[in-house]
Amino acid sequence: MTTNPSATARPWTRPHDWAEVVLGVVALLSFLWTDTSDAAMWTMIVLGALVALDGLASLAAPGQVYGEGIQIVLGVLMFISPWVMGYTELGGIAWSSWIIGALTAIAGAAALPLAQAAHRGMAGQH
């Protein structure tokens, strides 16, 4: 399957990046509907905001391949944060971290080939 570079290079159109924005916002707000600690709450607020902002940056500039790599790293950090920050006993927020983190890493990995195709398409326009 070949990817049409012009279709992947249009800003604000890639569903993977929109998914990253939504996942980031859900992570950011997850403390509102789960039992949490200060460490868990601030971890999810910061990582959620970074995921959403990076998703917006990827939407605005779809040829920036590094943004998808950052998204994968943020997803992994969110996934491991219940163990690192010590909130595995808080079921709701811990499961939110694990699920949103995994989905963020998957969305970033799925968007990586599209970002590479957009980057190649943009490189040919210079």
UniProtKB/TrEMBL annotation:
UniProt keyword annotation of Membrane present: yes
Among InterPro entries, the record links this protein to: SPW
Domain spans labelled SPW repeat-containing integral membrane: 16-109
Q: Does the keyword Magnesium apply?
A: no
Which superkingdom? Answer: Bacteria
UniProt keywords (A-Z) are: Membrane, Transmembrane, Transmembrane helix
Q: What is this protein called?
A: SPW repeat protein
User: What lineage does UniProt assign to this protein's organism?
Assistant: Bacteria, Bacillati, Actinomycetota, Actinomycetes, Pseudonocardiales
